[in-house]
Amino acid sequence: KPTAMNAFDLINMSKGLNLGSLFDT
Amino acid sequence: MGCFHSTASRQCPGHEDPVFLASQTAFSVSEVEALFELFKSISSSVIDDGLISKEEFQLALFKNKKKENLFANRIFDLFDVKRKGVVDFGDFVRVLNVFHPNASQEDKIDFTFKLYDLDGTGYIERDEVRQMLIAILCESELKLADETIEQILDKTFKEADVNLDGKIDKSEWHQFVTKNPSLLKIMTLQYLRDITTTFPSFVFHSEVDEMAT
Questions:
Q1: ipTM of the complex
Q2: Coiled-coil stretches, from where to where (chain B) (predicted)?
């Protein structure tokens, strides 16, 4: 349930913050 | 030390000596060279100028250069240490170093603070967190009522904003992240541990004496 999460846990789900995809060359 | 000069094939703006970069970071010389293979591939994807533009960064992240994303922009701005609108190799390595599994927790916490302090005021403010929440909801096509967003903000600020001034300062952020270590997950890239196996071709381009590695 989103309201049980803190805002930053939700924000961190952004693909823009997950740099692992930089390594998929 | 410090007097190594790259030869012609390595000359590109901001390309620093791998031995020097390794001495400043958790990476070995071979790892810095492997990162150069990654850097070359990203920095030549749109214009082959030896620098990563925002468009190239987004293309590498999303495989789509037209995708606008608040967070990718934010991360790019933090890589763009010299504020030139492009990222050179030295800054690429030094910023990725913060994402190394062996980098210090302090550096990771500092980086996330800067990341979320969208306006650079020295505080993470409620409006900034709201803006980021709305951005992630748009990105994930998830719909939440305004009231639910405010509840999430209330809950977060209740936990993080210890002095109740409506904004999160650096020391409050430090305490909050220490209590919620999952928030630092995005700050560690396991890929960086075995970067030389991901980009083995660095061996063919290496210009550093094996003794130096």
A1: 0.92
A2: none
